[in-house]
Design the sequence.
DNA sequence: CGGCATGTTGCGCA
DNA sequence: TTGCGCAACATGCC
């Protein structure tokens, strides 16, 4: 599921389903997902409340309730929200349920998460994970000065820097791989080798373009990932731009595909 | 059966 | 003290 474009699509769903809806029942039995809050706190915070807003920053979602409470949701690796009829049976890997009434119509919204790497907690104020997030490439203008600084100060590779949620909220392994391919920059380049303002701009443009492509793709194939990636998951196959066999390397513990033919490596 | 997976975190070690 | 690499988390799927 989860990188910025998927989470954004989820935000739009939740906004459509929940804003203005009143909660008639809420339940989760999963202490792991609701940590450090308790499953009981989740039910208690939601019952009888009305959703006012659904916000997103990077891969985090925040649902604001009418009494000032907030529900934070992170999809982890396999989390997803679905809407079903009221009283519908438990969906596969269901971890939480929110029954609501919107404009007189009752229905149910379920959170499913096979691996349970996600988070789902109801709290009174913003959590540290949310506050620590850097700018969101879709929502906010990015501060090029700050990005250049992050690159300059980083001994890490440019891919690791770009995936740092404090630098760009929402960029994960797919977006970083695709964005750098579009920007024609070798993901192994150390950040402090990319000193030109033009480099930062090119990378930001590549990431934005990758996000736009993914969003368009999600809209078209509402379900699953019809992979139309340039580089992600395609090591060994020809580069769609220059035909060179795409290489594979592990950076920051994540598999990374790139083209040694047309992605420039800086030292 | 082995290997890999869109994410994050915490631990051991240099 | 800081930083880095990597295992761990829990499960599906090829």
Sequence:
């Amino acid at each position: 599921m989860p990188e910025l474009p998927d989470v954004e699509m989820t935000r739009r769903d939740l906004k459509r389903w929940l804003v203005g809806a009143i909660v008639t029942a809420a339940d989760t039995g999963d202490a792991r997902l609701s940590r450090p809050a308790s499953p009981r706190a989740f039910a208690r915070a939601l019952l009888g409340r009305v959703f006012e807003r659904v916000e997103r920053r990077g891969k985090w979602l925040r649902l604001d309730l009418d009494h000032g409470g907030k529900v934070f949701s992170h999809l982890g690796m396999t989390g997803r929200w679905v809407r079903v009829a009221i009283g519908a049976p438990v969906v596969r890997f269901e971890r939480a349920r929110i029954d609501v009434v919107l404009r007189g119509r009752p229905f149910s919204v379920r959170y499913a998460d096979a691996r349970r790497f996600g988070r789902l907690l109801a709290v009174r104020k913003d959590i540290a994970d949310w506050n620590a997030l850097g700018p969101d490439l879709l929502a906010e203008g990015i501060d090029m000065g700050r990005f250049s600084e992050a690159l300059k100060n980083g001994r890490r590779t440019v891919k690791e820097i770009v995936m740092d949620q404090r630098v760009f909220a929402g960029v994960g392994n797919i977006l970083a791989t695709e964005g750098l391919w579009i920007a024609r920059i070798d993901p192994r380049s150390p950040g402090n080798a990319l000193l030109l303002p033009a480099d930062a701009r090119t990378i930001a443009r590549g990431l934005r373009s990758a996000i736009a492509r993914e969003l368009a793709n999600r809209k078209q194939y509402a379900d699953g990932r019809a992979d139309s990636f340039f580089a992600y998951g395609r090591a060994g196959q020809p580069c769609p731009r220059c035909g060179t066999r795409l290489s594979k390397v592990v950076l920051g513990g994540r598999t990374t595909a790139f083209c040694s033919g047309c992605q420039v490596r800086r030292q």
